[in-house]
């Protein structure tokens, strides 16, 4: 049976307290994608395994697709693209970056 929404919320609050320490967990979980991205980038192995189990690969793929500038390190970005089957060897997309209009 897949985890319930309350199980996911409980896990995200616990992870937010640990990885988004500058915000109260209740505030941090308003943006679950940000909590998940932080865990995917700096999380301990056990916390990452729990996140994968509760959120699932499809949800984590969405976190990558919606990533904001500066959320992922190059190493974490490449790892998760390979781990989730979103990139073949040597074809990881670039990290999210600011795009400025071309000068006229």
In words, what does this structure look like?
This protein has helices at 5-19, 25-28, 32-42, 45-55, 57-65, 74-83. With 104 residues, it is an all-alpha fold. It has one domain (5-83). Helix 1 (5-19) crosses helix 3 and helix 3 (32-42) packs across helix 5 (57-65). It is globular. The chain starts with a helix and ends in a 21-residue tail after the last helix. The mean pLDDT is 93.
Short description:
The chain is mainly alpha-helical. The chain contains six helices and no strands. Helix 1 packs across helix 3 (32-42), helix 1 runs antiparallel to helix 4 and helix 3 packs across helix 5.
Write the topology of this structure.
Elements: H1 5-19, H2 25-28, H3 32-42, H4 45-55, H5 57-65, H6 74-83
List keywords for this structure.
0% strand, globular, 6 helices, mainly alpha, 104 residues
Shape: globular
Mean pLDDT: 93
Low-confidence stretches: none
Rounded to an integer in angstroms, the radius of gyration calculated over CA atoms is 15 Å
H-E string:
HHHHHH
- The figure for the number of domains is 1
Biggest sheet details: none
Tell me the β content: under 5%
This entry's quaternary arrangement is single chain
Total strand segments:
0
User: Distance between the terminal alpha carbons, to the nearest Å?
Assistant: 56 Å
Q: Into which percent range does the helicity of residues fall?
A: 55-70%
Helix/strand-derived category reads: mainly alpha
């Amino acid at each position: 049976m897949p985890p319930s929404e309350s199980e996911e919320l409980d896990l995200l609050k616990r992870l937010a307290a640990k990885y988004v320490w500058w915000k109260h967990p209740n505030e941090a979980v308003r943006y679950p994608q940000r909590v998940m991205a932080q865990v995917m980038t700096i999380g301990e192995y056990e916390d990452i395994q729990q996140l994968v189990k509760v959120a699932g690969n499809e949800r984590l793929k969405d976190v990558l697709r919606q990533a904001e500038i500066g959320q992922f390190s190059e190493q974490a970005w490449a790892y998760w693209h390979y781990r989730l089957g979103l990139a073949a060897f040597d074809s990881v997309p670039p990290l999210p970056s600011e795009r400025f209009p071309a000068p006229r």
